[in-house]
Recover the amino acids of this structure.
């Protein structure tokens, strides 16, 4: 009863999440925000759940926050923690519960940790609260409530069974028009798992992907928001592209007085570490395979997932390389590309390592 009473506030008033970016540093992305607002305001017959994907640091949660502030109410937000023992707390926070008073997920973790497959019937109790919230909300506003699960990538490696439970429940509740779930993730392994399950039939497809800023938006961000001269803004953009977190880092470093050459070296060093962990450098396990993969990708800019898969004889190898942030899987189009402009900049700089020759017309910086 107490928990039901506590639910009133977030359900009726909305969560109004805080946006930690000052107005003068914020890039307004009206088209993507409109897409989010549509997802966050389903009509009463909406019967799909959603998956939103992109690389790390493309501004997903900032967009969700802006959109949910504009929408006002009916959005609950669950931030899946990296440490899953805090999952209870995350659910509690989402629905304004006093943490000590509810154990939403402890029973799932206990089940899973004891190697016992959790059954939906056992876990369903934990999601009852969301259903109750939806009922209250629907009775008042005649539309389903929306639950945003952010950072679901944290589940896919450590406790994929929990992701399965949330997905199954999302499917049933979309069918019943009770609540609409929105899964937000930053890794290709999430859509791959979710798409392989029967509950995928109720997911809204194609999956929504948040892309990088366009060249125009990036230049505006650097020139207007950070007051960087156009000539340097262009150099920074050519180095890291429109990936917002990378743009922010290089812009902050530049304004702190670092020379462009130093910034460039730092970016390239960071990418080299990714190549190292992907085992794509000379004498590494995937070097030979990677060389031809990189050449082919440079020629075509994108490969279908099947073409990409053909380079690997085992699924584990493919996942290992895909998880190391050199390449990026795009579920919306089912293709693979380089993960970022900074990866392309690294390859351009180290063309000799990958046997890429001048006349190959390698880098076409988009
Ligand atoms: N529209 C924007 N204008 C200015 N800065 C932004 C904007 N969107 C995001 N940022 C900044 O970029 C960084 C990454 O944003 P955010 O956390 O929203 O990305 P994300 O896609 O959720 O990342 P992750 O996948 O790692 O969870 C943050 O520092 C944020 O302040
Ligand atoms: Mg995020």
């Amino acid at each position: 009863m107490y928990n039901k009473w506590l639910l009133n506030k977030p359900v009726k008033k909305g969560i109004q999440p805080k946006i930690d970016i000052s107005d003068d540093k914020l890039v307004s992305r009206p088209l993507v925000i409109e897409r989010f607002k549509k997802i966050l305001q389903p009509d009463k017959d909406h019967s799909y759940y959603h998956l939103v994907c992109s690389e790390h640091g493309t501004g997903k949660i900032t967009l969700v926050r802006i959109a949910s502030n504009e929408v006002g109410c009916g959005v609950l937000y669950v931030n899946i923690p990296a440490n899953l023992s805090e999952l209870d707390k995350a659910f509690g926070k989402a629905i304004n519960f006093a943490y000590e008073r509810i154990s939403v997920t402890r029973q799932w973790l206990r089940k899973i940790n004891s190697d016992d497959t959790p059954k939906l019937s056992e876990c369903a109790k934990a999601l009852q609260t969301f259903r109750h919230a939806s009922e209250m909300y629907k009775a008042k506003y005649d539309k389903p409530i929306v639950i945003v699960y952010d950072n679901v990538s944290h589940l896919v490696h450590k406790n994929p069974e929990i992701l399965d439970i949330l997905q199954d429940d999302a499917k049933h509740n979309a069918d019943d028009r009770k609540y609409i779930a929105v899964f937000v993730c930053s890794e290709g392994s999430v859509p791959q798992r979710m798409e392989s399950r029967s509950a995928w039939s109720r997911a809204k497809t194609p999956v929504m992907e948040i892309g990088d800023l366009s060249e125009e938006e990036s230049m505006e961000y650097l020139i207007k928001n950070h007051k960087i001269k156009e000539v340097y803004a262009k150099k920074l953009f050519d180095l890291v592209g429109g990936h917002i977190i990378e743009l922010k880092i290089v812009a902050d470093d530049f304004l702190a007085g670092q020379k462009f050459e130093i910034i460039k070296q730092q970016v390239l060093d960071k990418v080299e570490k990714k190549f190292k962990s992907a085992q794509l450098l000379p004498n590494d396990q995937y070097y030979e395979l990677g060389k031809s993969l990189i050449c082919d990708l440079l020629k075509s800019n994108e490969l279908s997932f099947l073409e990409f898969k053909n380079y690997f004889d085992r699924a584990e190898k493919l996942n290992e390389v895909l998880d190391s942030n050199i390449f990026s899987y795009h579920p919306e189009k089912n293709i693979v590309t380089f993960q970022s402009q900074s990866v392309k900049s690294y390859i351009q700089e180290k063309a000799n390592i990958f046997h890429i020759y001048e006349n190959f017309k390698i880098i076409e910086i988009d």
Observations:
- The chain has a mean pLDDT of 84.
- The longest helix spans residues 120-141.
- The longest strand covers residues 179-185.
